[in-house]
Amino acid sequence: MKVLAIFGSARKDGNTARMMEAALSELPDDAEIKRVYLGDLNYEGCGSCRECKFNEGYCVKDDDMQQVFRDMIWAEVIFIGSPSLFSDVSSELKMLMERTWWMKGALRNKIGAYVVTGRRYIESTMNTLHAFMLRHRMILGGSGALGYSFTEMGDVEVDPLSIRDAHYTGMRIVELYELIYGNKK
Ligand SMILES: Cc1cc2nc3c(=O)[nH]c(=O)nc-3n(C[C@H](O)[C@H](O)[C@H](O)COP(=O)(O)O)c2cc1C
């Protein structure tokens, strides 16, 4: 099982990361997991240059997103975590999403799953993640895990359903993977 875990919060050990690690702990021991922390990377959003559409066929911006593209193509499972920031995914994650415009078809049938943290209007954050995965024709998996949190690190653990649902998300990834790939490692 090849899993790309995209950490969408600037805080590497915040609420989102805690939920992500809870989900990842459900994956089999031999799962290959690549963790990408978007806050560590240097990249920009889409420049609307249309090079990918009319000329080169791929994103020509030469920055850290190029390795993320390679990781996304490598992965069988793309697992994303985002805090809800002003009712949507983090800006780091939104930039990543924009930059995948050229990847149409490349993510088809990969398993997609996510966790979201926040406390209000977080459904619109989920909508953005759903739209991203569905537009790429990914298989929407997970369990819709929401971590109710306020602003401080570790708040998410005050909500017992958050961590439980994160574990369910990991379990659902495994269930879908076995359905699609059988016992392939
Ligand atoms: C700039 C900013 C905007 C935020 N906007 C929202 C919001 O619209 N809705 C919400 O529920 N939480 C909002 N929050 C709270 C975060 O979603 C919450 O603290 C989250 O758990 C942070 O994740 P992290 O610990 O992984 O960084 C916001 C926090 C920040 C810093």
Q: How would you summarize this macromolecular structure in one to three sentences?
A:
By secondary structure, the chain is an alpha/beta fold. It has a single domain (2-181), classed as Rossmann fold (3-Layer(aba) Sandwich), CATH 3.40.50. The protein has 6 helices and 6 strands; from the N terminus they run E-H-E-H-H-E-H-E-H-E-E-H.
What fold name goes in the CATH topology slot? Rossmann fold
Specify the CATH architecture: 3-Layer(aba) Sandwich
What is the typical, i.e. mean, pLDDT? Answer: 91
Q: What distance separates the N and C termini?
A: 6 Å
Q: What would the principal axes of the Cα set say about the shape?
A: globular
Helices, by number, come to: 6
DSSP helix fraction: 25-40%
| Residue fraction in strands | 15-25%
C-alpha Rg (nearest Å): 16 Å
- Tell me the series of helices and strands, N- to C-terminal: EHEHHEHEHEEH
Protein structure class: alpha/beta
Poorly predicted runs: none
Biggest sheet details: 6 strands, parallel
Write out the distinct hetero groups bound to the structure: flavin mononucleotide
Find the CATH superfamily: Flavodoxin domain
- The CATH class name reads Alpha Beta
